[in-house]
Amino acid sequence: MTTAFDPVDLAGTRLANRIAMAPMTRSRAESESRTPTALVAEYYAQRASAGLIITEGAQPTAIGQGYPSTPGLHSAEQIAAWREVTDGVHERGGRIFVQVMHAGRISHPEVLGNGLHPVGPSPVAPAGQLFAGTGLIDFVAPRELTADEVRETIAGFATAARNAIEAGFDGVEIHGANGYLVSQFLSTNSNRRTDEWGGPVENRIRFAVEVVKAVAAEIGPERTALRVSPANTYNDIAETDTAEIYPALVEAIDPIGIAYLHVTEPTPEVRELTLALRKAFSGTFILNPASEGPTGPDALALVEDGTADLVAYGALFLANPDLPARLKAGGPYNTPDTATYFGGDHRGYTDYPAL
Fold it and tell me: Is residue 43 among the annotated active site residues?
């Protein structure tokens, strides 16, 4: 029987186990240069025993930033800083993919600065507010991307992917989940376009498919991955055709031969669709399962029963940098301090003397 502690081949990259560290926004980059800090390098190096680390989202371009103090992948300075992160993980025997995340409409001029304004598929403001560094502010309507700008944005993902490989990453995960730009193109409430990028399912998946193709062409499909979150309403996303659009998306990207598909479940009710996507995708399948509270030890059974090839842990990895060893030993586990989950020197642990 295959267990989560067995090694696995990820499109030619050997992983020591099947326990992945899920991407989690930490907001620890330098506020001006958007470069990862020494704290970031130490944080990921401490978690190198994960079979695969997937970093926090890094914006592919300046206008892709969604939150204060998040890192970029679009300058020489950022590439050099990320090299410190990847070297630290590799020196401890780990493997690390960077998540490339364009926030789209989930941003604000106060976050972007330099006269920039958030962009999106359509000029539809999300409900709610955004933390902009000093407090919560209302979202604004994004500027609709022109068809030429859509293609430029796709090219920006590919350039960021090339920068990621230069920075020493083992690969790139495209963030297509949680209501950010790729997800916004998939959604029926944030994408109201009537051109080739909107309307029917085949048009709304086009942006995601073209981003995957562009990144795979730039760095190789074996270094390319995609994360999706079917039926997730986070960031004011509404999907009227979840059961149609995600199978269509997987069918379109499967022939590309990417390294993995990463699915995050908002609720247990999505499991039937998860299993359908698992069956339809021929590559490695990573699952961040729905659970009450942080994903726990019981999720290891999802590897044993074949539901997933790897299981992704989020908050529990914050509190337990040596999580694979603790899972194998059956504990004990530190409790994640969710009150200090994000930002600055907030460390997300209660009793473990680590970052």
Answer: no
